[in-house]
Design goal:
By secondary structure, the chain is α/β, with parallel strands linked by helices. It has three domains: 170 residues, FAD/NAD(P)-binding domain; 114 residues, FAD/NAD(P)-binding domain; 77 residues, FAD/NAD-linked reductase, C-terminal dimerisation domain (Enolase-like, domain 1, 2-Layer Sandwich), CATH 3.30.390. It contains ten helices and 25 strands. The strands form seven sheets. The chain has a five-stranded parallel sheet. A five-stranded parallel sheet has the order 9-16-10-11-12, with helices on one face. α1 packs parallel to α8. It is globular, with a radius of gyration of 22 Å. The termini are far apart. Bound molecules: flavin-adenine dinucleotide. Flavin-adenine dinucleotide binds next to α1, β2, α5 and α8.
Length: 399
């Protein structure tokens, strides 16, 4: 069996390792355009801040791929012919497969006001990191457009390099997709306290410059001179390349799959950020890992009915840590913790705790997820909250 995996991110590599663990004979080829070796995308910011060397972003020693007999190829796949079971690459190679896994991840969304000028950056790929590093020394001011998790990481990196930043966020409060207005206010105050010129309710209207960025104009009509513009308005499944191949799989926002990660094409599977599994896209590291593992079993003929656990995520807004589990929107109980830049919010429906949003302190998401899945009464959860605290370094805080 020749398994070909397109994309060497966490979904693709986890799938390759899982197939190898079960089948010592399988021929496994992983082809990816961005880098030869798997790296941790979530740690990009630490490379930008010079806290980690690029090589340290790689979760595995390079020899592991040789030992596991995983053939790595660095190239972009440009065509898929499911009838002939073949892929064609930008480098002119043709690869035959028996089974194919599409694990091509996400890409940064393009903004309607964006122009192809030197100085316009995203923060998703290693090539984006290269561009950011190249531009940083010559940047007297940067504008980052788009709140959320990737936007604030890029802003933090720029602040680390002492680049003045204007951070434009379209919404009237910070990241209302997940944070309540009170939490948004705390996060906004924290970001401003780092010296960031954060403007809520403000978008880019146009971008100025010839060949390279000279500035932007906001929807409020203000012109801001800058040499770098970070576009961080979200990511989308990386499916564009599949629209023009000889036999595209069924696509919606992502590559459509059933619960066993099967696409509409025979022996072609999809997993990770690119997959829309029974209508749901989970653009998260641990979800991509979980999907890679499950897709591997499915490709080996095992019965798989993927059902993700309750949603959870954790992130950092500069020094403010955030953990969420289950639902993040809806009515609930909010408590600001005394004397701290911290809060807890328990989302409540019909007297039950259906989600948690915890800011400024550390929480064990496993406990929170378990409570959501157990549908505990919110009154009981409020009494037991300290059981889910995870402040091992600093001790538990008073709730
Ligand atoms: C800056 C940043 C911070 C993040 N932080 C977090 C976090 O804190 N927590 C969290 O849960 N998630 C986080 N994420 C999201 C997380 O990184 C992704 O969910 C995860 O990496 C998805 O893995 P994947 O294997 O599906 O795809 P990817 O890691 O995107 O890998 C896919 C690979 O396929 C390659 N590829 C695409 N098309 C082709 C083609 N046609 N031919 C060949 N190769 C191709 C891509 O270039 C890419 O290298 C973050 C993402 C970013 C960008």
């Amino acid at each position: 069996m020749h398994l070909v995996i397109v994309g060497n991110g966490v979904a693709g590599i986890t799938a390759a390792m899982a197939v190898r663990a079960k089948d010592p004979q399988a021929e496994i080829t992983i082809i990816s355009g961005e880098s030869e070796y798997f790296f941790s995308r979530t740690a990009l910011m630490y490379a930008y801040m010079d806290i980690m060397q690029r090589r340290d972003l790689e979760p595995y020693e390079r020899k592991v791929f040789r030992e596991q007999r995983l053939t790595l190829r660095k190239d972009w796949v440009v065509d898929l012919d499911a009838g002939a079971r073949q892929l064609r690459t930008q480098g002119g190679a043709t690869l035959s497969y028996d089974k194919l896994l599409l694990a091509t991840g996400s890409r940064g969304r393009r903004a309607p006001w964006e122009r192809d000028l030197e100085g316009v950056v995203r923060f998703v790929s290693l090539q984006d990191l290269d561009a950011c590093e190249r531009l940083t020394p010559g940047t007297r001011r940067a504008v980052v457009a788009g709140g959320g998790l990737i936007g604030v990481e890029l802003v933090e990196c720029l602040v680390h390099h002492r680049v003045p930043v204007t951070f434009l966020v379209r919404e009237p409060s910070y990241w209302p997709a997940a944070l309540s207005p009170e939490e948004g206010e705390m996060v906004a105050a924290h970001i401003r306290a780092q010296g960031v010129d954060l403007r809520l309710g403000t978008e880019v209207a146009s971008m100025e410059g010839e060949g390279k960025v000279a500035g932007i104009t906001t929807t409020a009509g203000e012109a801001i001179a800058c040499q770098m513009v970070g576009v961080t308005i979200g990511v989308e499944p990386n499916v564009e390349w599949l629209r023009s191949v000889k036999t595209p799989p069924d696509l919606n926002r992502g590559v459509l799959t059933d619960q066993a990660f099967r696409t509409s094409l025979p022996d072609v599977f999809a997993a990770g950020d690119v997959a829309e599994v029974t209508g749901r896209i989970e653009p998260l590291w641990y979800a991509a890992k979980r999907q890679g593992e499950a897709a591997a079993l499915s490709m080996m003929g095992e019965r798989v009915e993927y059902a993700p656990p309750a949603y959870y995520n954790s992130a950092k807004f500069f020094h403010l840590e955030w953990t969420c589990a289950g639902e993040t929107k809806g009515p609930g109980r909010f408590r600001k913790l005394p004397g701290r830049e911290a809060s807890v919010r328990v989302i409540e429906r019909d007297g039950m705790a259906v989600g948690f949003s915890m800011l400024g302190t550390r929480w064990n998401h496993r406990v929170l997820v378990k409570w959501v899945e157990q549908r505990l009464r919110v009154d009981d959860v409020m009494k037991r909250l300290s059981e889910a605290q995870y402040d091992v370094e600093f001790g538990r805080v008073a709730l």
